[in-house]
Amino acid sequence: MKSNRNPWLVLLVVCVGTFIILLNATIVNVAIPTMLSSLKASLDQVLWVVNAYLLTFAVLLLTGSRLGDIFGQRNVFIAGLAVFSAAAALSGLARSPNELIAAQVAMGIGAALLTPQPLVIISAVFPLERRGAAIGILSGVTGLAALAGPVLGGLIVTDLDWRWVFFLLVPIGAAGIVLAYLLVPDLRPGARHRLDLVGVVLASAGLFGIVFGLIEGQRYEWGAVAGSVITIPEIIGAGIVAMALFLLWEGRGAEPLIPLSIFRSRNFSVMVWLNGLLFFALFGLLFTTTIDLQSVLGMSAIQAGLTTIPLTVALILVAPLAGRLTDRFGGRYVLLAGFLLLGTGIAAVAITESASATSLTFAIPLALTGLGMGSVIAPVMTEAMNEVAPALAGAASGVLNTTRQLGSAVGLAVTGAVLQNRLSSALHDRAVAESAHQAFVNGYTAAMRSTLGVAVVAVAVGAVSCMLIARRVRVSATPDRRDVRVAVETSS
């Protein structure tokens, strides 16, 4: 049965869900110092407010994508939004650090249920020739949330109470639930599926070990976590073993969590690789730049957020265009141009960085970075989803989102380690000649330049990898063609 829903209204609804997840990721960090004081929490507890969410989110993404295949993407999208919104309210009501951490775990569960569904829904309701433009608009929401988060967070913390950082998310989530029920078709696969429980356990254990090790490695100096028995390398190693067992199990199962056949497409495999490299470089840039703007240059959270406006505006403007160009010409050269722009932008940030830098100093470098990001995010998602059969769209979305989280975690870990090493060396060289504060400022400036070189190398690898993308074979697709069954709904 064909859906009579307007696909652009459907896109609007899934953008609301994506926006609330990304807004939470950017807005909470601004409130951390106030949370620390208000809840009388230790630094370790406040760090786990962030890490509990990120860890739960990353670990359950594959499971969330499979649940969408089983129960319908709209239903799981609504369930995820409901869990996320309720947990946001509980976060705002928390009276102790442990209550807040528990609520953040619940928010991570909601985010993991919600996040894989939009790509599948868009792939189902948009014909092939319009899919890139739609995914480009969805990608632009990333920039909008990145812009809104620090500014809104700064205003809330300054004029209200940190709890409103979470309360703000509740009405947006409630509106998203109502709109999803009214406007998003109830998409169901043509065949019934079941949940691969063994695969869920192995994937969750493997991802937990890898992501936990990467997130916490720097804090434990990549050594022992519990006494001298368990170390960070051992936790990461156990995670890798569990993921290897997961892949072996998936190759033999009748209803795998991830059908390994999706990797038979060269283009899909390349897109997964490029997705990981993109977020490796992106989070390395954001990590070093955030510290630089606030701790080195002395900007407030709002000033730092406003400094990144050129990046955000460029991303928002170019992402839909990149999606349309991908629809028309394929993603090979759009992605190549995007990675070259991204690498140029990051290199320009490193070159222009100085102890006397201002917001204007970074305007052009960040604008170039935003142009590159917008030219990569949408085409990667579009090309990947175009390569898989409709029945495998949920698994493909889960893989892409999980790769994004792993790339981000690895990027943060590697960047943090390199930055610490370079900063220690720079501070040692300046310790005698300069005051402590001036030594830190100058030392960080030097360390940041070399650290961003890691991100530039990752982007360069991505640019070279674009040449592995096979040229698209043009296919005809009518606007009315749909690849999935649309269940009869009594709600419309």
Overview of this protein structure:
- The structure is a single chain.
- The chain has 17 helices and four strands.
- The protein is mainly alpha-helical and 492 residues long.
- It has three domains: 1-184, Up-down Bundle (Growth Hormone, Chain: A); 196-256; 261-475, Growth Hormone, Chain: A, CATH 1.20.1250.20.
- A two-stranded antiparallel sheet has the order 1-4. The protein has a two-stranded antiparallel sheet with strand order 2-3.
- It is globular and about 60 Å long.
Main features:
single chain, 492 residues, 17 helices, disordered C terminus, Growth Hormone, Chain: A, two-stranded antiparallel ribbon, two-stranded antiparallel sheet, mainly alpha
Give a concise summary:
The protein has 492 residues and is an all-alpha fold. The chain has helices spanning 7-38, 43-71, 73-93, 97-114, 117-125, 128-159, 164-167, 169-183, 197-216, 232-250, 266-296, 301-307, 309-329, 332-352, 363-386, 393-430, 436-465; strands at residues 187-188, 224-226, 230-231, 485-486.
